[in-house]
């Protein structure tokens, strides 16, 4: 069944403290304000892979890092994945709302629609069928559906216009928590 899930910045829904180290902070600059967190995988028993339009991709293994960014008052949450210090994947959850406390701990409410930045740097909206199912199943109203679609389109447009700046900021934010 399709549902809007509450997710935590530290990804406790998926990983235990034995699987990863994490640190977080509230951060504000001229581009962003909200929670940022760095997860470093240290105790995974096996790598985690996902299917992508480009084939199977390992997204988590020991030594990999995920920079999680949740803008306060925003409608998206970014997961920037690093392997050997190199950014290799970006996954953006489109959210109903984000809640960020003064320490940077954050919770977001996943609206099922996502944007993934492919290996060639092309952003692609994915999981549209899950959003459609939520609308037709009465889980979300039309205004929430429109919010998700518009936010995903804005994320893609922003990425296309500011790719270099976004990537620079991802490395910068990662450096704050290393």
Strand content: 35-45%
The assigned CATH architecture is Beta Barrel
Mean pLDDT: 92
**Assembly state:** single chain
Please tell me what the overall shape is. globular
Question: SSE order, as H and E?
Answer: EEEEEEEEEEHH
Helical residue percent band? 25-40%
Return Rg in Å: 16 Å
What count of structural domains?
1
Could you explain how this protein is built, in words?
By secondary structure, the chain is an alpha+beta fold. It has one domain: Beta Barrel (FomD barrel-like fold), CATH 2.40.380. It is built from 2 helices and 10 strands, in the order ββββββββββαα. It has helices at residues 128-136, 142-177, and strands spanning 5-8, 20-28, 33-41, 48-52, 55-60, 65-71, 76-83, 86-100, 106-117, 123-126. Strands 1, 2, 3, 6, 7, 8, 9 and 10 form an 8-stranded antiparallel beta sheet that branches. β4 and β5 (55-60) form a beta hairpin. The N and C termini lie far apart (38 Å). The mean pLDDT is 92.
